[in-house]
Amino acid sequence: MDNFFEDKKVLITGHTGFKGAWLSLVLSLYGSQVSGLSDMSVVSGFYKILKEKNIFSKEFIGDINDKQFLEESFSVENYDLVFHLAAQGIVSQAKNNPHKTITTNILGTYNILNIVNQKLDIKTLVIATTDKVYEDHHLENKEDSKLGGQEFYSASKASSEHIINAFINTEKRNNLNIGIVRAGNVLGGGDYGKDRILTDIINSLNENSKIILRNPDAIRPWQYILDSIFGYLKVAKYSFTQKKDDVFNLNGELNNTYTVEKIVNSFINLWKSDIKVEIGFEKEARFYESKVLTIDSTKAKKILNWETKYNIEEICQSIVEYEKSSNKYSWATNHILKYDEKMKNTN
Length: 347
What we know:
Elements: E1 9-13, H1 18-29, E2 33-38, H2 45-53, E3 58-61, H3 67-74, E4 81-84, H4 91-96, H5 98-118, E5 124-128, E6 140-141, H6 152-170, E7 177-182, E8 186-187, H7 197-207, E9 211-213, E10 223-224, H8 225-242, E11 246-249, H9 260-271, E12 277-279, E13 294-295, H10 298-304, H11 312-324, H12 328-346
Parallel strand pairs: 1-2, 1-4, 2-3, 4-5, 5-7, 6-13, 7-11, 8-10, 9-12
Helix pairs in contact: 1-2, 1-8, 3-5, 5-6, 9-11
């Protein structure tokens, strides 16, 4: 285990979400004192399991656009590191409620930047944006590619990156370092978020009902939850120790060619199910979605020595094991320790 995080006081915004919950458990196993901040609008199945185990030092429930709430939450501890994962992260919900998406993802990010900047003990802030911030989604974008958005979610996240950059150039104190992580389409046990492909798959498998695919040929930069989480940790350590502000794409070349339909069929086979797959092309799209979305993570590999460890089959197998486990907390804890060993042996 990496002793860099041992005894660090860490605050995670969006800790009740899928990524936030897994990050919380990993950091707690690494010896960090983990606190969480969330408005509880997104509560993952995995968070509910962690909540029962009391792994959080403190939890703060409120809105990141409430400045008094932020001041009170950030004044309780002298945090060393902050991971900002709180966001409105669902494309379909962004279409239905653009105001909430814009205020959370843009103004909320500014509020986090501002409060972190005021708390002098905080040395590093890691901000999660998305692989969807790039204007030309179909290209294999690098970190310096042009930003933009075709719908409210990607536009809000691209806009938040402009705000982050402006803050770094004009407001940020010298001893604060900010790392930006662009990643997306993360798969892992315990998600269950609305309008996510994995949620639809698991529900269909559990109910033994057919699954309807909206975009069966869509290709995404699929990534395992632990590959993603350990990427965030590498960015945090790099920013903290090297005292640098930087941006990193996290995307594994292992899984860049798999369509939604192929992944669904892998789950069905591993689950040993006979549910049917139905292709449900819509006459009119409910919201804009890129057919092909990939990003280039050469920079993360070169500087952070980060790359994906799990291929699609391993990802699907791990999720099936998690979902069928009778003790999901014990399974996840052991799985993280095994992943840590795998990472050391392949570095």
